[in-house]
């Protein structure tokens, strides 16, 4: 599918990075071919059920949907199977290329969420799941992202996104491995929390030990924690009203033990 209708002016393809991941850059180029295998246990369908339950709760019936930071397109393709018209954007060319392999293929483009170049008033819903926006490590970047989403949404349109909380990043949930299993893709991740910068660095080692050529690679991912108060303020500044903040997969407000929260924001209608 030709995505040119979607793109506003000024869009440039982001080049694939080949050497160690600088903070805030495409950190997924090496892992992209293995991403779906790595996420095999992730309940994407339930996540989309949850998004739909939020839509029902707020009485919103979207048609055109943007999967922001779509990765390999798991969320977007699931929504397309349910009848929405979906396109995706992601910083990583490697991830975007995998979107073609979805059933149905998800039309997707390489684009930086902090510098969105989308046509105005194109979407009824923007979704961004799986801590994607934590990967935006500069507050100014997240604010630009909200401004870009506002521009792309139709008046009254919704943005639904999740964020890992400071707690989740601080307590080391990303320190994990599967070395004691026989999974073909072996991983060992170690996370480090920098409270001053509110930044979690995760050093990731991967080893392919399945059929075919063996390979090994390392990636470094950075996620930033954001305070609810700031997120609400930046959404408001961008012209969006925060309707709800939920403890993930519930309709409760997040307590101090929440690891992931969902934001539901609406583009204000201009009279
Ligand atoms: C943890 S993955 C989640 C992918 C997908 N949303 C999912 O649910 O599988 C985070 C994604 O965010 C993308 N990403 C990170 N920073 C980005 C940015 N500034 N602009 C666009 N995409 C970004 C990464 O390339 C990656 O595909």
Explained architecture:
The chain has helices at residues 35-38, 44-58, 74-81, 93-99, 139-152, 166-170, 228-237, and strands spanning 64-68, 85-90, 108-110, 123-128, 153-164, 176-177, 185-194, 199-208, 215-224, 240-247, 260-267. The chain is globular, with a radius of gyration of 18 Å. The longest helix has 15 residues, at 44-58. It is built from seven helices and eleven strands. It has two domains: 32-164 and 227-267, Rossmann fold; 169-222. 23% of the residues lie in helices and 30% in strands. A seven-stranded mixed beta sheet has the order 3-2-1-4-5-11-10, sandwiched between helices. By secondary structure, the protein is of the alpha/beta class. Bound molecules: S-adenosylmethionine. S-adenosylmethionine binds at residues 26, 28, 69-71, 74-75, 90-92, 95, 112-114, 129-132, 135-136.
